[in-house]
Amino acid sequence: MHRRGNGRFWGRKRGDRGKGPPRDRPTFHSRNVYIVAAPLLFIFAILRIIAYQLWVVLEILVGRSKAILPSACLPNQKSKYKCQSEAEEGMSGAAKASVGPAAPALATQKHHHRKAFEYISKALKIDEEDSGRKEQAIEMYKKGIAELEKGIAVNVGQGQGDHWDKARRLQQKMMTNMVMAQDRLDILASSKMWKPMKQPLAVHKSNTLPRNSRPASTGGSSSATSSPARKFSHQRQHSQQNPGARPKKDLSSLKLKNIDKKLAETIINEIVDTGPPVQFKDIAGQDTAKQALHEIVILPALRPELFTGLRAPARGLLLFGPPGNGKTMLAKAVANESNATFFNISASSLTSKWVGEGEKLVRTMFTLARELQPSVVFMDEIDSLLCERREGENDASRRLKTEFLVQFDGVAGSSDDRVLIMGATNRPQELDDAVLRRFAKRVYVNMPGKETRKSMLTQLLAKHSNPLTSDELSEVARLTEGYSGSDLNALAKDAALGPIRDLSATEVKTVDANKVRGIKYSDFMESIRRIRKSVPADTLSKYEHWNQEYGALGV
Ligand code: ATP
């Protein structure tokens, strides 16, 4: 106990010790403190209650005003997070309670995504029109990117459930879109071919050809009659009168602006397919795929006026399945039967043969596809270009992928362009979500069944006067269970060499072609030992599974 110098304990005389009651009696000092402090404490308590009430009222008012004006958020970095929480707060308490915390986040994301979509669509339109309004396109891209940033910044958390899943998927999509838009913006900003608009649009006339040269029946302008697309359409009609002849594309008749003429020429020579036309009847089996393609592509191409609005044909179509079963043949047949210019490129050649030029090539190819529409752009092995984004992926392939998606969206975004993008892949599981979304129709091109194998063999042997009996063909078809179309082709070629193998080297040089014996069943039996199937049986179940999950079933 603390002892004071005046011989008293604090508040008590020495003699009071042990007497009890004086302990509760307030001292003079404590009474003074109490008299002064009590009113002050009371006033503070009142002020605190008033402040709290004011804060509650302000919270409610601010919350309501943010719900009405969620777009008032500023696009700078700091406000991204502020904006997110504000918009989340903007949802009414009742709504929050009924749908859980994921719904406000999703609503906020959707709001920004929709705005971004509007801006970027405008930007793409200006960008594609190439009318010299570079500054305007740049501004639209920037606005779109700012909206995407806000949408991406929304906290989608680790929660479970449908809303959270949707929110996370949307966030992924926005990230992909943002990369694409940013890349496009960079290209545009550094592009030398663009000239900023110096005069008002009305007097700044573009020399570019009308991109959407439509046939008169679909409401195209009168200029369409002299458009390049029209010219090529005439050429196609001409080629139909001369079966086997493919129209020769002539660049000189096109007034292509702002594209590399050399590259365009290379595309015309190497990518635009002028090989012998393939018809659906050349393809054995694949009835489901053929029917799907007929409905999705051929009918809309033949009767465009019937397929408008919600009936507008899909712009992206994916053919997937084990290798060598006619995906390329189907794509060629689609182009041929819908009278379209066929651009045939493999994605792996873009990353190997066209190193460094890939992006430019993709851009030029799509420009040409629009000019020469109706067109089918067929990209084989699409998985090698559009697989899921991986960490450590190099910049060039990322840019190439982005360019492809931007061009894809450009085509898909225009209701007038008649450009179909067909992708083919043996590894559909590896495709990016963003890519899957764009290929809305996914058609499974499966392994041939016994009857298809038989008819394929019959077709292949037709050039040799069908030397096998129906029973022999059935037996070969039975023994070739698990063979792909391409394996059967290889088998038939090998069997056809049987009669030549019977000859000596000198005989081969001198023998009369008519004296060579015909192909026999035994040749096939020999060849079956040499030419084996190429598709492992266990991979087929993966395709089946993927088809069940993502494919166009029951077409
Ligand atoms: P990949 O996935 O390896 O690119 P693909 O599925 O595109 O293969 P195609 O290139 O169309 O296969 O076909 C390869 C060859 O196999 C064709 O040239 C053709 O000779 C033969 N073939 C495959 N399927 C069929 C079929 N259904 N009818 C006739 N021939 C076929």
Task: Tell me about this structure.
- The chain is mostly helical and 555 residues long.
- Helices cover 55% and strands 5% of the residues.
- It has helices spanning 28-68, 77-90, 93-99, 102-129, 134-153, 162-190, 228-241, 261-271, 287-302, 327-337, 347-351, 358-371, 383-386, 395-413, 433-438, 450-461, 470-479, 485-496, 498-501, 505-510, 521-530, 537-550, and strands at 316-320, 341-346, 375-380, 419-425, 441-444.
- Strands 2-3-4-1-5 form a five-stranded parallel β-sheet, sandwiched between helices.
- Helix 12 runs parallel beside helix 14.
- The protein is elongated, with a radius of gyration of 37 Å.
- Residues 1-22, 67-99 and 192-246 have low confidence and may be disordered.
- The structure holds adenosine-5'-triphosphate.
- The site of adenosine-5'-triphosphate has 18 residues, from helix 10 and helix 18.
So what's the overall shape?
Answer: elongated
- What spatial order of strands do you see in the largest sheet? 2-3-4-1-5
Query: Which structural class fits the helix and strand makeup?
Result: mainly alpha
SSE order, one letter for each helix or strand: HHHHHHHHHEHEHHEHHEHEHHHHHHH
Average predicted confidence as pLDDT: 73
Return residue spans where pLDDT drops below 50 for at least 5 consecutive residues.
1-22, 67-99, 192-246
Indicate the proportion of strand residues: 5-15%
Radius of gyration using CA atoms only:
37 Å
Question: What is the share of helical residues?
Answer: 55-70%
Largest sheet at a glance? 5 strands, parallel
User: Please, how many helices?
Assistant: 22
Bound molecules: adenosine-5'-triphosphate
Distance between the termini: 96 Å
Total count of strands? 5
